[in-house]
From TrEMBL:
PANTHER family according to UniProt: FMN REDUCTASE (NADPH)
NADPH-dependent FMN reductase-like domain: residues covered: 6-143
Gene3D superfamilies (UniProt xref): 3.40.50.360
Enzyme Commission numbers on file: 1.5.1.38
Oxidoreductase recorded as keyword: yes
Protein's UniProt name: FMN reductase (NADPH)
Alphabetically ordered keywords of this record: Flavoprotein, FMN, Oxidoreductase
Oxidoreductase among keywords: yes
InterPro entries xrefs: Flavoprotein-like_sf, FMN_Rdtase-like_dom, NAD(P)H-dep_FMN_reductase
Length: 176
């Protein structure tokens, strides 16, 4: 597939988090499985956290929002806190105007502390991305913390299942 801009948004408030590691691994696995030529880039929201709630968040937040606007594919990742994505991720996504993700393919990923939160990726994160206009063509990845020790195999398996649908959605968005 041609040159596609792939951006990973990491919604963990801790820098260098397990969520970041998982998100980058999942994005690389999807890029490889889908035959995307460009390597995924990242925005780690922990770097922007102190400014996200400010009335004037400054140029760093504006630049991050511009990167989202320029991306073709987004992998949106967060740990689960109280059964859903983080407030940090929500604060960032709330800065996007309505419909800001129209024409973009989004892949949701949540890192879970317990299996009872497995539906959170579909019940909470997917609807938020759809509300912003994204095409979410695949099931999200609900990744248990206990599976992080076999991250490469878990993300490769997921990427194998979703690559075809992601490619198809990219083609459909490109033809609009």
């Amino acid at each position: 597939m041609g040159d596609v801009s792939f951006l990973v948004i990491i919604g963990n408030p801790r820098p260098h988090s397990r969520t970041a590691t998982a998100a980058v691994a999942a994005a690389r696995a999807v890029a490889d499985a889908a035959g995307l030529s460009s390597a995924p880039e990242t925005i780690d929201l922990s770097d922007l956290a102190p400014r996200l709630l400010a009335a004037d968040p400054g140029p760093d937040v504006a630049a991050a929002l511009e990167r989202v606007a320029a991306a073709d594919v987004l992998l949106i990742a967060s740990p689960t806190y109280k059964g859903t994505y983080t407030g940090l991720l929500k604060s960032f996504l709330d800065r996007l105007p309505g419909g800001a993700l129209t024409g973009k393919v989004a892949l949701p990923l949540l890192v879970l502390g317990a299996p009872q939160h497995a539906l959170a990726v579909e019940v909470h994160l997917r609807p938020l991305l759809v509300e912003l206009g994204a095409t979410v063509p695949t099931p999200g990845l609900a990744l248990l913390e206990s599976d992080l020790d076999r991250l490469d195999s878990v993300t490769a398996e997921w990427a194998g299942r979703v690559a075809s649908a992601a490619r198809g959605a990219l083609r459909a968005e490109a033809s609009r």
